[in-house]
Amino acid sequence: MRQPWRVAIIGGGITGLAAAVRLRDRAPAGTEITVYEQSGLLGGKLRTGELAGQAVEFGAESFLMRDPAGGESAAVTLVRRVGLADAIVHPTVGQAALAVDGRLRPVPGGTLVGVPGDLEKVAAVAAPAADADRDGGRPLLGPDEDVAVGALVRDRLGDQVVDRLVDPMLGGVYAGRADDLSLVTTMPALARTARVEHTLVGAVRAAQAAAPRSPGSPIFGTLAGGLSTLVEAAARESGATVRRDAAVRELHPTPTGWRLVVGPTRDPELVEVDAVLLAVPARAAARLLAGPAPEVAATVGELDYASVALITMALPEPELPGLSGFLVPATEGLLIKASTFFTTKWGHLRRPDGLALLRASVGRYGDETSLQLTDDELVATVHREVSKVLGTPLPSPVASHVQRWGGALPQYTPGHLDRVAAARTALRAAHPTLALAGAGYDGVGIPVCVRSGETAAEEIITALGGSGS
């Protein structure tokens, strides 16, 4: 393979930018990296905006500080790599609540994404079934089995635990339903212990015991200047050529690599590269794969997404509880599914004038009719429903913002990881210089997306003949 290499990264979200940084660090000197982003903005779901004169996140809010093995998360490592470690800040208030039966109740401790490891601790929120979780004399899951989270928990603990605890927890992360989402993908630690333990409570406790513990260490972090500073720094440190408003419409294999068809149909640009890293949502990836890898495209294209809207309001001196926010079970019949009290949760956002920032999310998979409301209707509905949950009228907002994220959150049905692994294996066999990365394959959250991009970059480096470092 000739050097320097030419690598195209399609997708300018945090996955693609993390891949670009990894390529810059590990590929031979002089490697030409080009990031193609079809919109005018980099960062994907990382977007810091401004409301009432203050920086506020209109997309992802924070990142996990630790990885599942207890080490520094990939997001933190990237933050350090691009020189932003001193900007990391942590929540000052961590306690959240659930809106159940019209009032707020603290999220019970001892759960794993809402699945209880102690039934007594959740009794105030959800009553387990009378004959809950009996030992059937065998592990809950077979060696290669995957099930929907809701199916397993309903069978072992009853409907209330799912509807009031697990479903709102998963809904807050995935905007999906516990009855549809894969246990192996969304709760891998629990899936592992469920292959050994005979009860669900026992599996939760085993998963918690196996998790590395760092007492007193913060779980979440964000950046004082906003997460868009990470986007900007990653783009800069990668040294990549960034092309905004550049839609890649087709991919064609050539004897030495790939030909990209970029731009409008009437005046396309043809670009020759040695390797391509696809860091776009699954459906966009499927369209590009349809020519060179139709079977992989068919598998990738099956993944569905949920759409959501985030409504942020600036409120003059509201009476807010000392909580980071609250989750809303679908059974409450409200449009909102979660709310975050930004200026309570994040001390660095508090203002001397008492103006508070509050954000709520709407939109659940399979029930996105709420997103047909106008921006003004969404703001009014959120204002009314949050007031109802808090039991006191909120003051009228002095400013508001509605951010709509169409097709934002992947919906991982049972068997997802096996399908992804098979697709990647087939793609590597046919086209080793073409790699897939992103939330559509490996999971949601900034650390997972960063790691996904870095792993794909390493695959490209290997396929092209190894590192120059």
TrEMBL record:
Tell me the compartments it is located in: Cytoplasm
Listed cofactors = FAD
Single Gene Ontology MF annotation: oxygen-dependent protoporphyrinogen oxidase activity
Q: In which pathway does it act?
A: Porphyrin-containing compound metabolism; protoheme biosynthesis
Q: Which SUPFAM superfamilies has this protein been placed in? A: FAD-linked reductases, C-terminal domain, FAD/NAD(P)-binding domain
Signal peptide position in this chain? none
All copies of domain Amine oxidase, residue ranges: 14-461
Q: Which reaction does it catalyse?
A: coproporphyrinogen III + 3 O2 = coproporphyrin III + 3 H2O2
Q: What is its main location?
A: cytoplasm
GO BP annotations listed? heme biosynthetic process
Domain of life the protein comes from: Bacteria
What are the protein's UniProt keywords?
A: Cytoplasm, FAD, Flavoprotein, Heme biosynthesis, Oxidoreductase
Q: Which Pfam families match?
A: Amino_oxidase (PF01593)
Alphabetized Gene3D superfamilies for the sequence: FAD/NAD(P)-binding domain, protoporphyrinogen ix oxidase, domain 3, Protoporphyrinogen oxidase, mitochondrial, domain 2
Q: Respond yes or no to whether keyword Cytoplasm is given for this record.
A: yes
An example GO CC term for this entry is: cytoplasm
Known EC number(s)? 1.3.3.15
This chain's function reads: Involved in coproporphyrin-dependent heme b biosynthesis. Catalyzes the oxidation of coproporphyrinogen III to coproporphyrin III.
Q: Which family does it belong to?
A: Belongs to the protoporphyrinogen/coproporphyrinogen oxidase family. Coproporphyrinogen III oxidase subfamily.
Query: What protein name applies here?
Result: Coproporphyrinogen III oxidase
